């Protein structure tokens, strides 16, 4: 399991939700490729086709994804993915706050969790990004291309910010992030 596997799986969840809600993703309009294809995922996430393919294979073999019998495409197993994100993520891919930097807000500073917790004046957490408008403590994203990938997909941004809430929070904060993640990830 590699950290980019989670980014790929969450992108697939985002695409699936967009399709179910009738949203058009910007990638679909700008690329002629199927957004679910390896090439479409490469363009959307900034992860090479080889790594996307290997990621999907790892996810299927670990049970975090299943192959659709009709189309042959990988689909995230949302229940298993949720359980891994809530119970295993912070141990497998721990987040350590770093130096102050400019970037994109994540965890409790991002939209899904912002204003839900009263902060004791701590600095916010950000993914380092030169074009970011906020200052905060640096948190390495699950994959280096995350700041660029979320510019194209608000749902993916929400998911990744929520799982950073799980990675960074103490019991109460991680519980709130897990609750919000459940509301988004487990709804059909």
Report on the structure:
There is one protein chain. This protein is mainly alpha-helical and 188 residues long. The protein has helices spanning 3-21, 26-30, 38-45, 49-62, 78-87, 89-92, 146-149, 154-168, 171-185, and strands spanning 65-67, 74-76, 100-106, 125-128, 134-138. It has 2 domains: 3-91, Arc Repressor Mutant, subunit A (Orthogonal Bundle), CATH 1.10.10; 100-185, no CATH class. The chain is built from 9 helices and 5 strands, in the order H-H-H-H-E-E-H-H-E-E-E-H-H-H. The strands form 2 sheets. Strands 3, 4 and 5 form a 3-stranded mixed β-sheet that branches. It has a two-stranded antiparallel ribbon with strand order 1-2. Strand 1 (65-67) and strand 2 form a beta hairpin. The longest helix has 19 residues, at 3-21. The radius of gyration is 16 Å and the shape is globular.
